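Pasting two entries for a bug report.
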Amino acid sequence: MSLRDWFENRRNKQLNADLVESKISGDDLLKLWEKCYNCNTSIPQKELEQNMHVCPKCDYHFRIGARERLEQLLDEDSFEEINSNMLPSDPLDFVDTMRYKTRQVDARKKTNLNEAVVTGIGKISDWEVAVAVMDFAYMGGSMGSVVGEKITRLIEEGIKRKIPIIAVTSSGGARMQESCLSLMQMAKTSCAVARANEQKILYITVLTEPTFGGVTASFGTLGDIIIAEQGARIGFAGRRVIEQTIRQKLPSDFQTAEYLLKYGHVDMVFHRSGLKSTLEKLIRIHAPAKQKVNT
């Protein structure tokens, strides 16, 4: 046995002994660390959570769920969810590799959500807002009939209360299992945004990693102010589809938030840590004079 093998065996024995002593399984040990997709750095989960799920080495923004996003953006204990019990149906009795109903059940178990968007009323630095946050973990954040309905109802609630409306997107686009019913949500949500515009209600969209398809083509890019999170990929069709269609190689930064800012498709690009303060400033600047006095 070589000296290297001897040390390797000794290290493995010690590691196994430590695992037995602490009663932590190998799988649990792996959960304590997260590898950055951008720079391959292994980061302790606690450190990543404290850093708002942003890599401390390369600043890569990890995807986060709707509940985590709400905790980051809204004042503590200020969020009241609305329309939480709306569930999707299966009008087409759709089956691909599995039944659509089965996919819905699996998605609910995986995310502990009833759909790919969470909507409700909350506060940002004491400013009341209507907010919708999409969750990519629920069937790729796809927009079906329930997602479109919840977002439409939220916008209508914002109009009713005369408060700013904020939509945080993360989606692969329309939900194919609902066919044309999902495509109809593009028109429905766009009409709701138009009504908010007519009532002079501030509508802000925050585009996060990733935002594509029907969400980009509807309420996602209709904001009075469009903010993109640093490094987020945003577009309609995917990069590979475009390259195959035009038969050209696209720039390395194509469809990133920074690329879209350069060509005027978004108004601002912000680091996750500065997002809440930015939203607060925008809301304060656009608030009616009477509302400013009251606050």
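Entry 2 (this is the one that rendered wrong in the viewer):
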Amino acid sequence: MSARSTRRMPMDLAGRAAGLALLGVVLASCGNEPVPPSEGRLVGVVTVAAGQFSDDIQLSGEIQAKKDVGLAFRIGGRVLERPVNVGDRVMAGQVIARLEPTLEQNALAAAKAALEAARGEVSTARNTFERQERLMAQGFTTRPRYDQARRAQETGQAGLENAEAQLELAQDRLSFTELRTAVAGVIIARQIEPGEVVQPGQIVVQVARDDSRDAVFNVPAAVLDTHLSDAKIRVALADAPSVTAYGSVREVAPQADPVTRTFAVRVGLQDPPEAMRLGSTVVGTIELATAAIISIPASALTQQGRSPAVWVVDPAKSTVSLRDIDVLRFDADKVILSQGLAPGETIVSAGIQALHPGQRVRPLPQAQTASASPSRP
């Protein structure tokens, strides 16, 4: 190898090194090329929409009759029999219990005899008066005798009417020895046994009427502070959730239970199924709907100082600005707002970490809509 070729080799290596360095600078400048201002930063966005937000409160209760009827004898006496027991279904007019009828039967016989005697007296008095009336017309009797016969007829007629009333009363008292129910229902309690002596008006049995049923719940005072009277309540059997009925609050106890400190709330059921028998355990779901509110994804929430905030997109300029919001409550995947946003506004839901006020953004292709949705507390 000549000396001239030896001197050329370092120069070629130096040229190649300079070229590689220049290429590296060009490639680096290409990698750091800024994004054109017209495009903006890619972010996820959602459009704010108002909706209804509801809380479901579940309570346990039982099915009870809307009305209970206490049956009692109108007269006193010794109970002869009671052919029904607790749980028996009775029909209107069915005999519930009987008293010993001996005294009433004797009183009825005496009333019948008194009526026959009164009829005989009236017949005699009427004949006497008619005879005195004829004699008076012929002038063969005196005025005092005529008046006496007339008064005797009137007295006999009054006695007859009294005897008829006493007979009706005796018949009624005899019928009162049988206690019949005027409504159809189920026996839920009994207070007497055969052989006992009862007083007039003493409750013998309690009948739950079949015409309507209530679901009764023990409700805490905090729930009563809500608009419970306007709530729609779904009632389902505890052991068969598919058996349901709907109802509304019919009655609220004015005083709390001294032990549980809860208030008894009666919910009138609309066309309850036959499976909801008296005493069945049910679960009531109270659907409490609020006014129109807004919920946003939890990923859209950021902070400005100590206040929660979101990035709001200006649709005309495609730029973002930070806005304070008021949070009503936090859920697992969303935030419920009380104020700060209006329906129709667009906010950033993804990519909020590197944003600054006035920065241009571009929405990702998959855009979603944020609205309030039913949620359980």
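Dev reply: Rendering is fixed now. As a check, the viewer should reflect this: Residues 101-174 form a domain with the Helix Hairpins fold (CATH 1.10.287).
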